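FAQ: What does the model actually see?

It sees only this:
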Amino acid sequence: MQTLAHWHGAGGPGPWILFFPLIWAALVATGVFLRRRRGLWRQPQHAAHGTESPLDLLDRRFAQGEIDEDEYWRRTSVLAERCRERNAERAGSRR
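And it is asked to produce this:
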């Protein structure tokens, strides 16, 4: 170590000292790359519109003002009625 610290007898650290910032930059870049690849810094994604339930979609549209209250309640009642019909059909087919 003593010979590296006194490069060519001039008493300075020598040109190898320039590699330390490069090593640190490579370590930081590798860490950032790995964290991004594993998804640790990703923002949580909202559910895609295709995966929302019909009631969730209806709630979202009402909250955004795309439909008014009368339309919201009308569609909610239709969805609830269809849900009851499906449940009755399933219960009937199980017997």
